[in-house]
Amino acid sequence: MELGASPRSVTPGRQRWDVKLILGRPRTAEVLAATLRRIPGITEAQANPVTGGMLIRHDARLRATDIGRIVSRAVARVAEEPTGVGRPAPARPAPAQAPRAGSGLVVRPALAVGGGVAAGIALVKGSALSRQVVAVAGVAAATAVVLRKAWRGTVDTPRAAAGPGAERHALLEIVGPHRRRLYRAAALSVACQAAEMALGTFLGWTGLVLIKGEAAPLVSLGLTTASAQLWGLAGLVAAACAAVAGLSYASTLQWRRLGQDIEHDWRGRTYRHVQHLELGHLEGERTSRVAGALTNDVGQLGAFFAGPANDVLQLVTSLALLVPAFLLLAPQIAWIAFLPIPVIAWLSLQHQEKAAAEYAVTGESRARLGSQVINSLEAGATVKSFCTEGYEAERVDELSEAVQESSRQTDRSTSRHAETIRSCTTASMAGTLLIGGRSVLNGTLRFEVFSPLIGLPQMLLMRMSRLGGIADQYQRTLASYDRVQRLRALPVEADGGDGTLDLAEVQGEIVLDRVTFAYPGRSTALKDLSLTVPAGQVTALVGATGSGKTTIARLLMRFQDAQSGRVLIDGQDIRGLRRHSLRHAIGFVAQDPFLFDGSIADNIRYGSFDASDEAVLQAAAMAEAHSFIATLPDGYDTLIGERGAALSGGQRQRIALARAILKDSPVVILDEATSAVDNETEAAIQRTLRGFAADRTMVVIAHRLSTVRHADRIYVMDKGGVVAEQGTHNELLAQHGLYASLWQLQAGELAV
Questions:
Q1: CA-CA distance, 721 to 544, in Å (whole number)?
Q2: Collapsing DSSP states into helix, strand and coil, what is residue 700?
Q3: In angstroms, what is the C-alpha Rg of the chain?
Q4: How far is CA 292 from CA 280, 288, 414, 484, 614, in A?
Q5: Which residues pair with 277 in a beta bridge?
Q6: Which of 283, 347, 473, 632 is 20–30 Å from 270 (CA)?
Q7: How far apart are the C-alpha atoms of 525 and 516, rounded to whole Å?
Q8: How many C-alpha atoms does 623 have within 13 Å on its Cβ side?
Q9: Considering all CA atoms of the chain, what is the largest pairwise distance in Å, rounded to the nearest integer?
Q10: Cα–Cα distance, 347 to 355 (Å, whole number)
């Protein structure tokens, strides 16, 4: 495969590729993945710059050869992009044309050459001052080049991740509507930094008074004696300390509130988006990954603005105040004082490049460990029954060791980066003292100027030593932003048409007209299926596992939509109805119902929050749940734990059934709703449901045929989603077909 792209494994709907182009290139990997995700038919693309591997999830109807062509074209396109993310594009002859006005193709090289010539002349023939200015300009130019490269790279990556239409940097997208609080926090930080520098200046003047007996700037204020100047400086230092404390407190509070506002806003909007995702996409994502994006990743977005963003602004403010001060007052030492800046910026950029890949590996390892721990805990009964506690512990140990090793590698890289920066800043401080001291001794720099300035770069250098941590948090924030955006990019359920159902007028007739449906990557579940569920009657669906019974229920709820054919309710195509309107008209009880962490009453009342206590008790009685609830110490106020862990399977089913009864919908779907209850309880439930089913359409899906023997109509489903037989219980027994053989297996006789 051209450009080193070759398939590693190919399965329906999922492929793994090895792509040499992305190996060691985090930005290239992110841009390639973003490019593939924008292609119709590809639902997910993940690229790992450490291993060079790429995972692609796609529509199962796309052939492997189609994906191969798509990957080849995407890799070639990314490699030829002039953004620098891939390999350099081959040189192409440009068509002859007149240069446009303002074009930088000629102006920028000319300026660079002219500036270089002027700098060379200044260094050779200029004065000492001109040479110092050229040195400072060189430091500034180097810093600008490094920072411009870093900024352009970080702008391109979030845009590619966010997809078309994103025109702002990721940090601006994260702040969103909280700009005013950002401006307030920034203003307070700038004022605090100015107060800190004023405090440093006042302390320098104090040392000058103690050494020379006076500070010249204070003489102009009328403080002529050393005693008066010391008292005046004491007041100025006290005022500056108070200002620094107050402004630091206010700015820190504003930044933290900004971080909290961002976290709350993003979590709320992202969670609302997740609640409206298509069920197929939500079920296809690891729950731990979704929860991680809503908790850890969203928290990281706010944490960056609560801390590192303030550090960046303080650093920029220090530079904006110190550089002009040194250029005006002490140009002799300006170049050595600020020499580490481009070096540190370049080191931070290199660290950011490497950290992207390292954090991707660490994040994936942690996700696997978290998923394994959750699965092992949820499967506690299975683990104990098979005596595999040791096996599960070893699996967690292996994954934990992988997390530990990847974290150690990341920590080593971060520590090396921080110590390298510390060495650069220490060397710069020593050089400033040496060169500045010599300038004072030879008379080219006044001690009155050097003394207050010498302490100010220390504040800047201390902040420079934190650049590694800032870059670290910045990279984490971009990675978290990308994961949150991927989650927000998943398609939500379309609301459907504008049609609605009036619950008071719903009859409940359901028609499946030549319906065909297949889950992604699987064989056809329903093939050209047609059946009718009469209004106001009990209709049962029975048959072997995998015959499409539950799929019919999912189509009726519009958890999925048929690939062809129509599903009608009272003659209306359900795709023309609003989803909420349709689902309000249908009560649904799944085989494994979900109960929330709370009381039994809260779970029965879920979705019918205004129901009275009497209505809750009546629904529980109809579901044969009141008898066991009454025996509990706290009755209906009993807390049942996560997923109803404190209850048996049959008790959970009866509470879920009571919830559906309380909803009082004109159509009710019971998908193996009584499979976990005993025969006596099931018989009692059947008796109460007969009264509940009066003038109501009820679809009962069951494996246990005793559950459906009194149904008005029974459809017997066979493999491939086709109707093998239909009729009443006695009619099907008389046919001596599939239903009769199933009844004989379960009941031991053909008739009762």
A1: 10
A2: strand
A3: 36
A4: 19, 6, 24, 9, 40
A5: 492
A6: 473
A7: 8
A8: 30
A9: 121
A10: 12
Task: Summarize pLDDT for 396-407 with one digit per residue, the tens.
Answer: 898 888 888 878
Give the integer Cα–Cα distance in Å for 523 and 60. Answer: 10
Question: pLDDT, tens digit, for every residue of 683-712?
Answer: 878 877 887 888 889 999 988 888 888 899
> Residue 704 has what pLDDT?
83
* Least confident range of 168-182, 288-302, 318-332: 318-332
Q: Which long-range contacts (CB under 8 A, 24 or more apart) does 482-486 make?
A: 482/30, 482/158, 482/161, 483/292, 483/293, 483/297, 484/266, 484/270, 484/293, 484/297, 484/298, 484/301, 485/161, 485/162, 486/37, 486/44, 486/161
CA 522 to CA 728: how far, in whole Å?
Answer: 32
DSSP string, 421-483: HHHHHHHHHHHHHHHHHHHHHTTSS-HHHHHHHHTHHHHHHHHHTTHHHHHHHHHHHHHHHHH
Closest CA to 37 of 29, 28, 46: 46
Residue type, 532: T
Residue 543 is classified by DSSP as: E
Kindly state the tokens that stand for 421.
């920066």
Strand order in the sheet with 5-11: 5-11, 14-19, 53-58, 42-48
Q: 281, 495 in Cβ contact below 8 A?
A: no
pLDDT at 187: 94
Instruction: Write the DSSP symbol of residue 574.
Output: G
Tokens 């119709």, residue located: 40
Q: Give the pair of three-digit tokens for residue 217.
A: 């700037």
Length of the chain as a residue count: 752
- The Cα 451–Cα 446 span in angstroms is 9
Distances (CA, A) of 475 to 1, 255, 302, 411, 543: 32, 19, 14, 14, 54
Q: What's the whole-number mean pLDDT along residues 649-662?
A: 88
Residue where the block lists tokens 């009844």:
743
Sign of CA dihedral 139, 144, 145, 151: positive
Q: Supply the pTM of this predicted model.
A: 0.64
Start-to-end CA distance of the chain, whole Å, equals: 68
Give the integer Cα–Cα distance in Å for 280 and 453: 64
Residue 153 tokens read as 């790279």
**What is the b/e burial string over 218-251, where b = at least 16 CB atoms within 10 angstroms of the residue's CB?**
beeeebeeeebbbebbeebbeebeebbeebbebb
CA distances (Å), origin 308, targets 147, 246, 468: 17, 20, 11
Q: Which one, of 7, 23, 44, lies nearest residue 486 by Cα?
A: 44
List all residues 6 or more positions away from 85 whose beta carbon is below 8 Å from its beta carbon: 25, 27, 28, 31, 78, 156
